[in-house]
């Protein structure tokens, strides 16, 4: 409805239109203005000036040219142009939430850290989960390490445990960090692949860096494709020190254990989830917190002394090694609950600045060379990324305890000193002073030696724990590792790199090496890679390293996708929902149309997803509650066939009414004990009972994914 152009320069007409109870005023170009009415706030510039028109630039006549004088336009566009800050060079894609840490018992015997002094004390926390390699806009289910960074706002300053969901790392010395990261990021000439390790540069670096072999086994395992942030462990990786009030040291490793147990997806599922819902992990955290189903982890510590360190099989300073939980049992010392999403993603999750060097008195570093290097890197990166030394003034980074210092000025300084003294000592009796007892003290570790660039010989065994990890897995988990290696190496175009990897695998597990070689079509096995130290085969399996051996035996926090059709049994849908709710699980209706279906009893069941948007990869188990007519119709749809076929192939439990048979036939499902009848209350109960196992791995050899 263009207005007469001869009205050039005239005021907007007060032609009002109502849309959704909102009164809009039509301007002289036909555009609609939402103008302030009653107590609505008036739109202003950043300088606070009220704005009359936010739809049109200032022009000479209605068809231009535009005027530079338009300060509102210039300010708005200039601010928009500056909206992005550099993404993190690693861990760019992440998602965070607020919560609290609750201390179980006093740990005063081991540490004087204030956070561990009083049972029941709650400390505010912010956690950011992330992938490592992908850019900010990449997908959630890349095969990758997950960052697990926790900021604890203690009464003695911020304590950041900047960990991963894997307890070891690729490299032993921080000087190699740019190399390992360059190798995994998109190759610089072609700028792909995004968020993937399946390419030549990565495997070239890895196969030339034997210290990475232990971590590689973890990254090729299902740990690198977690079902959700809520079902992951977190590890501080390095050995740290606890220091008590007498400055006595106990070595400590930190582990976060999820209350809901561990769970991962399978690779074929991950690939499909990335298409169906690239924000799968974000959405999961958002949904669970919005539903009041707050994710929770226990902080566990592995404590040991110098004698243990001296007698342990490996160097406790080597970040490519772990201490098996069977050797030192992790002790739970508190719990972390995430119960609030940030108000604004950018202000909090994007601007949060984690730094390994943020430790309170009572916690100290070890000489792990990776940790020592990290302690340098994180401050530097925050200044680059956030643009000012004053990034600690941002609310998400500011300590929540009193702070007093003489640091001043700089870009965007928001806390500025008052009074005359900005140095100490001073004669004015102003400002803070140091406190030898309460302040941070380092462990007085004696140190002397020559200035050298050397790797300790005690770091030289690169294969024994890789092997220990592999033999600790269940058979399906071992197969997943073999399949992941095969997939990744199949994307490597240089045969010599593929073979080099097989030569390393021969030092880890010959069966694994042979399987991968066979699947890659390598006819003749290469010779074993030279090992600096002969790999050991006497390390016993450690059950704690397997996901499958540590199942939650509960379906709590998981989600069932229920496919419905017109004429279905509405009462059954409700009964299933009630039973799942009792289990602490969720249910989502998948319908041919998102508007839902009309059940046989006339009730309308609204859809959460339309079938095209709700593939079964988004669910932990599925139920098919359809009518006979509905099943006939749905059987014609490729998306419905995929829904059922994928659920079966991904070893999920499937509950189905008899009428759903055509859907199973169409999907080529050969019924087994995981394809279960659904009708009675007993059926519902046994379906949920089975779902507690999460997957029917016994089906896997049959489906041959
Ligand atoms: Fe790092 C970010 C974890 C080695 C340098 N790192 C970063 C994050 C996590 C980790 C979780 C994201 C934090 C957030 O959510 O904002 N990094 C690790 C772990 C490592 C590790 C567990 C080995 C045990 N990192 C490591 C080394 C260096 C860095 C050896 C450099 C010498 N890491 C960085 C960084 C980042 C970072 C460049 C990028 C963004 C940031 O710090 O805030 O400084």
Architecture overview:
This protein is of the alpha+beta class. Helices cover 26% and strands 17% of the residues. Among the domains are: 1-39, no CATH class; 94-188 and 222-393, Beta Barrel (Catalase HpII,  Chain A, domain 1); 558-703, Rossmann fold (3-Layer(aba) Sandwich). The strands form 4 sheets. Strands 4, 5, 6, 7, 8, 9, 10, 11, 12 and 13 form a 10-stranded antiparallel sheet that branches. The protein has a 6-stranded parallel sheet with strand order 18-15-14-19-20-21, with helices on both faces. A hairpin with a 2-residue loop joins strand 6 and strand 7 (157-164). CIS-heme D hydroxychlorin gamma-spirolactone is lined by residues 88-91, 94, 128, 130, 147, 149, 162-164, 169, 174, 177, 237, 319, 352, 354, 370, 373-374, 377-378, 381-382.
What is the fold's blueprint, element by element?
Elements: E1 15-19, E2 22-26, E3 32-34, H1 71-81, E4 94-103, E5 122-131, E6 146-154, E7 157-164, H2 177-184, H3 200-207, H4 213-219, E8 234-235, E9 240-243, E10 249-258, H5 267-276, H6 280-290, E11 296-304, H7 306-311, E12 331-340, H8 345-350, E13 363-365, H9 369-386, H10 464-471, H11 475-490, H12 495-505, H13 510-520, E14 559-564, H14 570-583, E15 586-591, E16 597-598, E17 604-605, E18 609-610, E19 621-625, H15 628-634, H16 638-649, E20 654-656, H17 661-666, E21 675-677, H18 681-691, H19 700-703
Helix pairs in contact: 2-3, 3-12, 4-10, 11-13, 12-13, 14-18
The structure holds CIS-heme D hydroxychlorin gamma-spirolactone.
């Amino acid at each position: 409805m263009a207005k007469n152009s001869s009205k050039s320069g005239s005021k907007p007409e007060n032609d009002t239109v109502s849309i959704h109870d909102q009164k809009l005023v039509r301007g002289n170009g036909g555009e609609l203005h939402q103008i302030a009415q009653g107590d609505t706030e008036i739109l202003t510039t950043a300088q606070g000036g009220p704005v009359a028109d936010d739809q049109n630039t200032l022009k000479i006549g209605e068809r231009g040219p535009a005027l530079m004088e338009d300060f509102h336009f210039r300010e708005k566009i200039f601010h928009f142009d500056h909206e992005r800050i550099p993404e993190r060079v690693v861990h760019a894609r992440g998602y965070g939430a607020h919560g609290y840490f609750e201390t179980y018992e006093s740990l005063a015997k081991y540490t004087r850290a204030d956070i561990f002094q009083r049972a029941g004390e709650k400390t505010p926390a912010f956690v950011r989960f992330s992938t490592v390699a992908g850019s900010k806009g990449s997908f959630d289910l890349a095969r990758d390490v997950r960052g697990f960074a926790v900021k604890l706002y203690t009464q003695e300053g911020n304590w950041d445990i900047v960990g991963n969901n894997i307890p070891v790392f690729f490299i032993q010395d921080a000087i190699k960090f740019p190399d390992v990261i360059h190798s995994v990021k998109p190759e610089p000439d072609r700028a792909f692949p995004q968020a993937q390790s399946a390419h030549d540069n990565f495997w070239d670096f890895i196969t030339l860096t034997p210290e990475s072999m232990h971590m590689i086994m973890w990254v090729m395992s299902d740990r690198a494709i977690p079902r959700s942030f809520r079902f992951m462990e977190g590890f501080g990786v390095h050995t740290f020190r606890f220091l008590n009030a007498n400055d006595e040291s106990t070595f400590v490793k930190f582990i976060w254990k999820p209350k809901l147990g561990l769970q991962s997806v399978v690779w074929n599922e991950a690939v499909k989830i990335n298409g169906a819902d690239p924000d799968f992990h974000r959405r999961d955290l958002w949904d669970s917190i919005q539903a009041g189903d707050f994710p929770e982890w226990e902080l566990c510590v592995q404590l040991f002394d110098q004698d243990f360190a001296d007698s342990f099989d490996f160097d406790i300073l080597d970040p490519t090694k772990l201490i098996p939980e069977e050797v030192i049992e992790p002790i739970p010392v508190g719990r972390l609950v995430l119960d609030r999403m940030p108000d604004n993603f950018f202000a909090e999750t994007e601007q949060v600045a984690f730094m390994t060097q943020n430790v309170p008195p009572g916690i100290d570093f070890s000489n792990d060379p990776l940790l020592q290097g990290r302690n340098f890197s994180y401050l530097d990166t925050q200044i680059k990324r956030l643009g000012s030394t004053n990034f600690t003034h941002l609310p998400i980074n500011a300590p929540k305890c009193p702070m007093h210092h003489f640091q001043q000025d700089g870009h965007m300084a928001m806390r500025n000193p008052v009074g005359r003294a900005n140095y100490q000592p001073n004669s004015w009796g102003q400002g803070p002073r140091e406190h030898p007892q309460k302040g941070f003290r380092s462990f007085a570790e004696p140190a002397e030696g020559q200035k050298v660039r050397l790797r300790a010989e005690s770091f030289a065994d690169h294969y024994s724990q890789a092997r220990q990890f592999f033999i600790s897995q269940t058979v399906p988990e071992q197969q997943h590792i073999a399949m992941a290696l095969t997939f990744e190496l199949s994307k490597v175009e240089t045969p010599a790199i593929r073979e080099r990897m097989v030569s390393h695998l021969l030092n880890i597990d010959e069966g694994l090496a042979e399987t991968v070689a066979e699947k890659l079509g390598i006819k003749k096995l290469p010779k074993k890679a030279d090992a600096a130290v002969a790999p050991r085969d006497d390390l016993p399996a450690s059950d704690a390293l397997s996901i499958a051996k540590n199942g939650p035996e509960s379906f709590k926090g998981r989600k069932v996708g229920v496919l419905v059709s017109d004429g279905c049994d509405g009462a059954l849908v409700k009964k299933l929902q009630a039973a799942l709710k009792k289990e602490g699980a969720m249910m989502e209706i998948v319908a041919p149309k998102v508007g839902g279906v009309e059940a046989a009893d006339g009730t309308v069941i609204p859809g959460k997803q339309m079938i095209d948007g709700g593939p079964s990869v988004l669910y932990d188990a599925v139920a098919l509650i359809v009518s006979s007519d509905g099943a006939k119709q749905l059987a014609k749809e490729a998306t419905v066939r995929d829904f059922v076929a994928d659920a079966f192939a991904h070893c999920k439990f499937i509950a189905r009414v008899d009428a759903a048979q055509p859907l199973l036939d169409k999907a080529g499902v050969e019924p087994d004990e995981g394809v279960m009848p659904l009708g009675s209350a007993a059926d519902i109960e046994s379906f949920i009972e089975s779902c507690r196992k999460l997957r029917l791995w016994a089906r896997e050899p049959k489906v041959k994914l």
